[in-house]
Amino acid sequence: MNVYQISFGAQLRTVALLFYFLCFPLLLFAQVSPSVPSKTTYIDRLFILGNKALKEKDLLAEMKTHENTVYLSFFRPWVGLYQFGKIFPDSSSFRNFFQNTLGEAPVEYDSLLFQDDLARLSELYAANGYLAATFHPEFEYNADSSLVIIRLKIDEGAPTIIQSIRYVGIDILEESERDLFEQESAIRIGEVYTIRDMLRERARIVSFFQERGYAFMSTDSVRAEVRLSNQNRSAAITIFIRLPEQLRFGDITAIVHNPVQSDTSSQLRRSIQDGIQVDIYSEQYIEPYLIRRSIAYRPDQLSSLSAKRETLQQLGLLGIFEGATIRDDSVRDGRLYTTIDLQLAPRHQIKPELRIDNRNNAPNFSPAISYLNRNLLGGAQSFTAAVSGGFQPNLGARTQIFAGEEITLDPIVYNFDARLEYSVPYFFSPRNRLIALLQYSILQDAPRRQQSVLFRFRSQIFPNIFQQITLDFLEVEFVDIQLPNVSDAVREDLFNRGVPRTFPRNISSRLDFFFSNLPEAQRTLDARLNTTFELSGALPYLFGAGFGEGDAQLFGLRYNQFIRLSALGSVGIPISGNNQLAFKVFVGYLFPYAKSANNPTPLERRFYAGGPNSLRGWGFNLLGPGNNPADSALAVSRLGSDIKLEFSVEERISFFRTFGYPSGIVIFFDAGNIWARQGENALVASTFFEQVGLNTGLGFRFGTPIGPLRLDFAYRIYDPSLPLAERWQIQKWQLGSFQFNFGIGEAF
């Protein structure tokens, strides 16, 4: 066993070497004496010039010849880490970590490999309709030929244009169907002829006929013939289609298998109705109609691939199956007979959890335990009982100065939640679920202590795999907020800043729309959109109790009237290799109306800024509103405000793996704040840019089975809470003056 030790002096040399390698990576490719020619040439830079039809990243992805990862045209930190690993012995785990996990070896130039790359690029251009593309590489070597700069100049030439399109074998279609078939074509006369579009057209043809009863239509049923002109300027396309037998669905069998042992006839419960046979091999009671109504096709209907997919999705939404497949059993007399195999998920589940974050700038531990019954009454009704609690020691100051008075802070910040939830599938349709919720919460977060009881009726709708619509058609919330350890003078000042003197009930309806394209396998970017519209106090007002003078009341109980709007959009764009550029925009607006028009908005519905998922240069909920002074941030910022604007951008760079999951670093920038609707911290165009907080920073991501562990170190660029002359903070940066945040999962 090799033992490697470094003395204190050697440690200093190691640090110096690491700094040298990271700051001057151009010297790392080869340590060669100028008088001795190098036997190996390393690639310094690789440039692609003249390309217009194809993107540079697509061309580089096709090539095996590549340059090392470089930033700002000269900075190669991963090569530096690779070279730094050479100070350790060959068998050292440190060497393996720096070179194979973190580092990136200098790339050697291989002339044969480069010639193969040119051949691949020629094929790529030909596949995209540029058959006359030519390539002209230029090489620039340094003095001893140890480094080379490659400039690959591309002359794309004229593309091949589609001159005509003809389909053979679709005479069986009616005229209207034939017109629809041709209108949906993925190729068009006058467009550039590409192999990608031809493959898309073949897939479209197969899908078109599979939806119209041709269940065994396949890619082998489609053949294309392309005739090119003498100079490859135009293409005449003929597509031959061979249709199999058109089929209708026959009888359907759905089998619910025993989750713990082999299926036996003694366990079988069978139900047959409308040509659908349901066989259940389980002691667990399951209503057969629950399965039957989730099947999206029926006997005698034309076979359809989308109907099968719809069936699997609707069975999955029931929440009681962990697996579902559809088998094509046989074909007889023009009928396709199918069997649906269903694997039951465990009926009972107990799930303990431990959540850790750093709200309030200290470790917050939140243990939780929940019980789930997936099939309470046999109709896939689910019941959940959950309890969670969190506690956090106050590691900072025990007092806060506000309005000239010292406020005592509690040594422990804590919260507690208890929740009961009951849900029923198929409320309006197979893609709809009704949920009833009862929740009790306690939150102690200086300067307030809050208790609340929430009752909600919710409907969840899943129009497709990309969208989710949530409608809370009735939500009643009772809230009680106290301000302990605060004098009457400070309490009055907080009232003047928008803290409600009393806490009416929230009787609300809410509509939430969520979109994500992550289920799409062929997506070119990741996009998410979440919009919310909440209307509080309208239902009791319409009952008639809201008419007349005085406060908004229903049977003597006061309630709030407000409208809350918010929209959160995020986009992730791949830029090169494992790097992704991500953007986030958040807009929120809250305002009271009718009889509550002159009242403060409820604290539990306001917007907040600062923290691991907001502006990371500030602590949890410690920014704003407007240019609220920093010395009162703890007392005022955590009371929130009615307007929020936020923008974030970050580059995510993955270059190693932990636990088998992608890991790396993130460079981020955040901007935004919260504002009042009126008063000293109101959103005003003339002072808008003076009140926008700015921060930047560096984060580390370590992949885990539950999502990336996020460690972010942020530095403030512009702090609106300081006097105007002191707000720019860049010149005050120090190595240890960062704001640290951590969490699980990406910030957005």
List its traits.
748 residues, alpha+beta, Ubiquitin-like (UB roll), 16-stranded antiparallel beta sheet, five-stranded mixed beta sheet, 31 strands
Question: What is the CATH homologous superfamily assignment of the domain at 8-155?
Answer: membrane protein fhac
- What's the helix count? 12
Report the uncertain regions.
Answer: 1-38
The best one-word shape is globular
Q: Please state roughly what percent of the residues sit in beta strands, choosing from under 5%, 5-15%, 15-25%, 25-35%, 35-45% or over 45%.
A: 35-45%
Structural class by helix and strand composition: alpha+beta
CATH class of the domain at 8-155: Alpha Beta
Measure the end-to-end span: 46 Å
Tell me roughly what share of residues is in helical segments: 10-25%
Order of the strands making up the biggest sheet: 12-13-14-17-18-19-20-21-22-25-26-27-28-29-30-31
Annotation, overall tally of beta strands:
31
Please tell me the overall pLDDT.
85
CATH architecture of the domain at 8-155: Roll
Topology-level CATH name of the domain at 8-155: Ubiquitin-like (UB roll)
Radius of gyration in whole Å, from Cα? Answer: 33 Å
Would you write up a description of this structure?
This protein is an alpha+beta fold. Among the domains are: 8-155, membrane protein fhac (Ubiquitin-like (UB roll), Roll); 161-241, membrane protein fhac (Ubiquitin-like (UB roll), Roll), CATH 3.10.20.310; 248-344, membrane protein fhac (Ubiquitin-like (UB roll), Roll); 346-485, no CATH class. It contains 12 helices and 31 strands. The strands form 6 sheets. The protein has a 16-stranded antiparallel beta sheet with strand order 12-13-14-17-18-19-20-21-22-25-26-27-28-29-30-31. Strand 2 and strand 3 form a beta hairpin. Residues 1-38 have low confidence and may be disordered.
